[in-house]
Amino acid sequence: MLSKFKDESRSEKKIEVKNQYIVFLINDQEFGVEIKQTREIINFTELTEMPSTPDFVKGVINLRGEIVPIVDLYKRLEIDKKERESDDKIIVVEIAGNLIGMQVSEVKGIIRLSEDNIGSAPGLTKQYKRDFIEGVGKLDDRLIILLKLNKVLTQEEVEEISELEV
């Protein structure tokens, strides 16, 4: 009878699902992206600038034989940039099967958040910028803006920058 009681108590426990996010800074604001979408993090490196690209595309890099476009998240999110480029990092992500680098100030680490710790984007955010935001993660006394990478760049933009030729 005791074993039956233990089994019932296990089935009543709510399993809490937590997603992992890479947390990074743009200036002093913390942002996060789901770790499932990221490939790697590299130091900012010399870029090859490309003519006739959207203003938020900084250029391209050669990453072990693969050409990877670099998106300036400062410009894309309309955040004034503090001068720190030499210390910046690039988070290489995969969007719609394409590798794209996202320039950020600093990578802080990896966190786990349950859905209970994610709130919706504030109503004060401009509508098109709100589409970029999955939600706001609450971790202790920190608020982390969680980005939807598949919305930060439209499918057309991803296709356009993935076709850049060097």
From TrEMBL:
Annotated CheW-like domain residues: 18-158
One Gene Ontology cellular component: cytosol
Coiled coil: none
One Pfam family here: CheW
UniProt record, GO biological process: chemotaxis; signal transduction
PANTHER family to which the protein is assigned, alphabetical: CHEMOTAXIS PROTEIN CHEW (PTHR22617:SF23), CHEMOTAXIS SENSOR HISTIDINE KINASE-RELATED (PTHR22617)
Protein name: Purine-binding chemotaxis protein CheW
Organism: Halonatronomonas betaini
Lineage: Bacteria, Bacillati, Bacillota, Clostridia, Halanaerobiales
